[in-house]
Amino acid sequence: MDKSATIFVAGHRGLVGSAVVRKLQSLGYTNLLLRTHSELDLTSQPAVDSFFAAHKPQYVILAAAKVGGIHANNTYPADFITINLQIQTNVISSSFKHNTQKILFLGSSCIYPKFAPQPIPESSLLTGPLEPTNEWYAIAKIAGIKMCQAFRIQHSFNAISAMPTNLYGPNDNFHPENSHVLPALLRRFHEAKASNAERVVVWGSGKPLREFLHVDDLADAVVFLLESYSGLEHVNVGSGKEVSIKELAELVKEVVGYEGEIVWESSKPDGTPRKLMDSSKLEGLGWKPKVTLKDGLTDTYRWYLENVIANAHQ
Ligand SMILES: NC(=O)C1=CN([C@@H]2O[C@H](COP(=O)(O)OP(=O)(O)OC[C@H]3O[C@@H](n4cnc5c(N)ncnc54)[C@H](OP(=O)(O)O)[C@@H]3O)[C@@H](O)[C@H]2O)C=CC1
Ligand SMILES: C[C@H]1O[C@H](OP(=O)(O)OP(=O)(O)OC[C@H]2O[C@@H](n3cnc4c(=O)[nH]c(N)nc43)[C@H](O)[C@@H]2O)[C@@H](O)[C@@H](O)C1=O
């Protein structure tokens, strides 16, 4: 790829988009096209089409989406299905219409059936019922994969899809209810330590297993796929390592330095019991993750202290 190619990174202020921008800049890409949500609402078809007509990006990385953890997905199903269908339909169809050379769409491991074989190969897509807490979001993401495939089959449009596992890192969403488990626990344990609270509440049974990938590894994989993969099938992006939510909570407690007790709130949903991705396809293409969970958590906590807590005290 030419380092001066115009690359539109949609969602560049989010967890994934900001990591992709850091990665592209570190590799010497100089012509990044970036718009905030207020500058360009991707749910508006006329606005997206005018933007593409005016700027004609050569490459597009679609990292803008309505995203949230188990509680947000379960509480706002209409938002999760509608906004995601709108954003991806507008961006993929305008990319094709205005001659983008290649687009990379980001889905999620929740596209797979709740009881898929573990580790989950790409071929498990559409082989069984979805996890109910996030089926609305999953249906939108599955439609995104199928839209990329349909444009490739009908129009030879170079649209590819990457399916990341659960991500974390700088610029994550640390909202107490609507975020994913890892940033939620970093914040909750930090606040408990700061206020000398005797216990911290963690949702569910602690038994579900999750695979976590640092967002810098994901960004590396995204750019790797953009530069080197043009297949019909979506590609899993995982770390290959899973931990139980109980183990995660113990690790966050240690990294934050909290000494109180953990209490489990069993009325909260566990979600899918296990979703370890089979990332052997990506590994076969020549890509591997680098960041361990312990190192990634330690760095993310440092980022949280320096960027969220420090700013809150200014
Ligand atoms: N986080 C995770 O664990 C995982 C994420 N993914 C996927 O990665 C992608 C990025 O997720 P992530 O970075 O975590 O999400 P974030 O919520 O951190 O970022 C999403 C970005 O999209 C922007 N956005 C949302 N709606 C619109 C809109 N209507 N118009 C313009 N911009 C909009 C947001 O801007 P604003 O905040 O201003 O609305 C934000 O910058 C998503 O496709 C997600 O499905 C996949 C697996 C796991
Ligand atoms: C990436 C993926 O993310 C979502 O799926 P999820 O993996 O279930 O996401 P989660 O991070 O919110 O929860 C993981 C586990 O952790 C437990 N848990 C404990 N305590 C807290 C807690 O405080 N907050 C949260 N959110 N979860 C908690 C929680 O009960 C669950 O058992 C999808 O909806 C969808 O968005 C998607 O694709």
Automatic annotation (TrEMBL):
GO MF, one example: GDP-L-fucose synthase activity
InterPro entries documented for this protein: Epimerase_deHydtase (IPR001509), GDP_fucose/colitose_synth (IPR028614), NAD(P)-bd_dom_sf (IPR036291)
Gene3D superfamilies found in the cross-reference section: NAD(P)-binding Rossmann-like Domain, UDP-galactose 4-epimerase, domain 1
Catalysed reaction, written as an equation: GDP-beta-L-fucose + NADP(+) = GDP-4-dehydro-alpha-D-rhamnose + NADPH + H(+)
Broad class of enzyme this protein falls into: oxidoreductase
EC number: 1.1.1.271
Pathway(s) annotated for this protein in UniProt: Nucleotide-sugar biosynthesis; GDP-L-fucose biosynthesis via de novo pathway; GDP-L-fucose from GDP-alpha-D-mannose: step 2/2
Record domain NAD-dependent epimerase/dehydratase: where: 7-238
Cross-referenced Pfam families: Epimerase (PF01370)
Keyword terms, alphabetized: Isomerase, Multifunctional enzyme, NADP, Oxidoreductase
Membership in a protein family: Belongs to the NAD(P)-dependent epimerase/dehydratase family. Fucose synthase subfamily.
Name listed for the protein in its UniProt record: GDP-L-fucose synthase
